[in-house]
Amino acid sequence: MARYVRIPGSIALITLANPPVNALSAAVRRGITETLSRAIADPEVKAVVLCGENGNFCGGADIKEFAGPMSGPGLVPMIDAIEAGEKPVVAAIEGVALGGGLELALGCHYRIAHCKARVGLPEVTLGLLPAAGGTQRLPRLIGLSAALDLITTGRHVSAQEALQLGIVDRLTEGDTLGVAVEFAQSIAGQPLGSRRLSTRTPACPADLDSFLQGALVQVRRRARGAMAPEACVRAVGAAATLPYSQGMQREQELMASLFRSAQARALQYCFFSQRLVGRWSTPSGARWDSAEPRPIRRAAVIGLGTMGRGIAVSLLQAGIAVVAVETDEQQLEAGRRAVTALLERRAQGRGSEGPLRFTTDLQQLRQVELVIEAVFEDLAVKKQVFRQLSAVCPADTLLCTNTSGLDVEQLAACTRSPELVVGTHFFGPAHVMKLLEVVYGPRSSPVAVATAMHLGKRLGKVSVAVGNCPGFVGNRMLKPYLEQAHFLLEEGAAPEQVDQALEEFGFAMGVFRVADLSGLDVGWRVRKEAGLTGPGVAPGESPRRRQGRRYSPLPDLLCEQGRLGQKTGRGWYLYEGPGAREARPDPWTHSFLQQYRQQHGLQPRAVPQQEVLERCLYALINEGFRVLEDGIATGPEDIDIIYVFGYGWPRHRGGPMFHAGAVGLATVLDRLEHYHHAHPDIPNLQPSALLRRLVASGNPPIQKWREVIRRVRSQL
Ligand SMILES: CC/C=C\C/C=C/C(=O)SCCNC(=O)CCNC(=O)[C@H](O)C(C)(C)COP(=O)(O)OP(=O)(O)OC[C@H]1O[C@@H](n2cnc3c(N)ncnc32)[C@H](O)[C@@H]1OP(=O)(O)O
User: Fold this and answer.
1) What is the ipTM of this complex?
2) One of 65, 86, 94, 103 is an active-site residue; which one?
């Protein structure tokens, strides 16, 4: 899988041929090794050019191979042989040179890149480090500090930045291969000495020890328990402190500690799951490969609150013309100022935006192909908007609702073309967060789903197609998780203790800090509408029971006290003042909880950290199994991607369903049974039928769950 051609001017051209990204599979490594030997042995060949077919140099090692036994020539000796050879090798980089692909290019003596190419060492995002010499050669090429940044973040670097940093020697806007061949001819016969990066000394900061120490502290803080970033710092540190060969040895040792780790498996699962969710299907038979998305050039956003503003910015940045609509001039002006400010802040280094118009007149929507309604989260208000939209927009306009859990079908029923209505659940801030839940109702057409999914991709989001039920996937699963957190407070835990357990697990923020950030009134309103609190509650009903099951009124009581979270300076935690962000444990909350327990005759107990994690996470996971049973998500990967990209689930733990498999489904089942036995009035703790069936099927790997899910669904 590497082609060899002799071209005029004594040049051998080696082309990596493993589409789509020329990953370095065993066959490709064999191909490179053999063709390189051929070029070296041929006295007519004076220089070699290495390129990739299909407009991509190389996407790195073949990640699919990592799960099995590795065979074929090793990457390290292959790259060492290129570097050590007496004939110059020029890498002609188009598309991407990532991971092992960039390491291969670093083994070459020169690198010519197309101006649209991208390079990087993203191994850290897969739970690994660049162990084909990347941690040793890159610092020797661009210095320790810049190399550390690239290797610990895994970020992709544009060709322009790569040139500035010194990763590539020359850029071209034209024919990369032609330029590389001409260049190879011009340097043939010149000494290769310092072009061999392994022979160089890396440029290091003056106070190396404290620099490396600082780097360790910084990556540990960011990593939230992920191991690979720290290993990357240690490997790069070895480049600065050890001779090349010993540094390579250290790189291999550190890689060995990561390669078969649970974290690497989880991160690689996320990589493939992210791509799998793009191959969506719905129970009605609509599929990604048969439904054609409509082109969207002009869109409208209805409602310029926080979400609407972010959505408008997202659309504009994807080059889509936007009509932004508000109800009155005052709201419109506030929206205009906010959107303009967001655009200005994000303008640097970005491409051109689509045109933007502000209006209070719905008649201006006659030309748009798609509308995203982002008004207040109230079904009656949204229904009214959908009726109006249906009246003014052309019948073939796709109507989307940005809702975090309302019934998409009820909105579709208000329109002339219910098949063109879908939910687009953005996550705030909508121009930043990567997740989009695309919610299909029973009547949503394949083209509507395909268009919304495609739009998400255009906006740079990870789109997941999900079915219509209260809360869809993400918020539906969040409910039992939040509920457990409240019950744990009733039983004796403090908010900061619950948060600490979750943050040590890897969440960016614990459940109570998140609630304070988003505002406690959001859930309060939903519970009032559901008749769980407020005037809708039947007189005489126990405050700790609703609809035949255990209920915790704690968050309602906080709201009644005006403690709405950060915005009021007080919530579960105390803040310096309204809008301040630093959460401090609040003695008021502690004594409030104490009084509450006394009032309800609850004997507080010390709640172990393990129990906090098991009850919160397993209740959420159990609901995930129910989501799968109900066909709201197609497979566990959909749920995991939603949680990783939308809910701060630590990526190195793969997502909730992956985590369940990693812990062992039998263990999750056993613990749920245990907690359900202890709390029979909490139905969410009762293990789902699917979980039981999976355990009975012998705990199959997550990739096989879909078969069991199909069987369970067919029996329901
Ligand atoms: C023993 C190890 C020794 C040394 C260390 C070296 C380690 C490595 O090199 S690890 C790999 C590092 N590389 C990466 O992390 C890059 C991963 N790929 C990407 O980021 C993207 O795929 C891309 C930027 C290269 C292309 O993006 P895009 O054009 O959007 O396409 P897709 O992402 O949909 O990918 C298309 C197709 O290719 C598969 N694929 C991509 N990269 C790899 C890879 N390195 N190995 C195996 N397969 C890869 C991807 O899964 C898609 O396939 P499917 O459509 O079947 O899912």
Assistant:
1) 0.99
2) 103
**Phi (first) and psi of residue 428, to 5 degrees:** -85, 145
58 in contact with ligand 1, CB cutoff 6 A:
no
Pick the CATH number of 609-715 from 3.30.450.40, 1.10.1040.10, 3.90.550.10, 1.10.8.60: 1.10.1040.10
Indicate whether residue 98 lines ligand 1 (CB < 6 A).
yes
For the Cβ of 59 lying below 6 angstroms from any atom of ligand 1, the answer is yes
Q: Which residues pair with 398 in a beta bridge?
A: 370
pLDDT level of residue 715 (50, 70, 90 thresholds): confident
Query: Within 13 Å, how many C-alpha atoms sit on residue 474's CB side?
Result: 26
Q: Is the CB of 21 under 6 A from ligand 1?
A: yes
CA 21 centroid distance within chain? 21
Catalytic residue among 34, 44, 65, 123: 123
Which architecture, in CATH terms, is 493-599? Orthogonal Bundle (1.10)
Residue 85 Cα to ligand 1 middle (Å):
28
Q: What is the pLDDT of residues 125-176, one digit of tens each?
A: 999 999 999 999 999 999 999 999 999 999 999 999 999 999 999 999 999 9
Verdict on whether the full-model pTM lies above 0.90: yes
- Please tell me the residue having the least CA distance from ligand 1 atom 17: 59
Cβ(95) – ligand 1 distance below 6 Å = no
Class of the CATH domain delimited by 2-259: alpha beta
User: Can 493-599 and 609-715 be said to share one CATH topology?
Assistant: yes
CB 58 within 8 A of CB 96: yes
CATH of range 291-472; options 3.30.230.20, 3.40.50.720, 3.50.50.100, 3.40.50.2300? 3.40.50.720
- Residue 665: what residue type? L
Q: Which amino acid is at 331?
A: Q
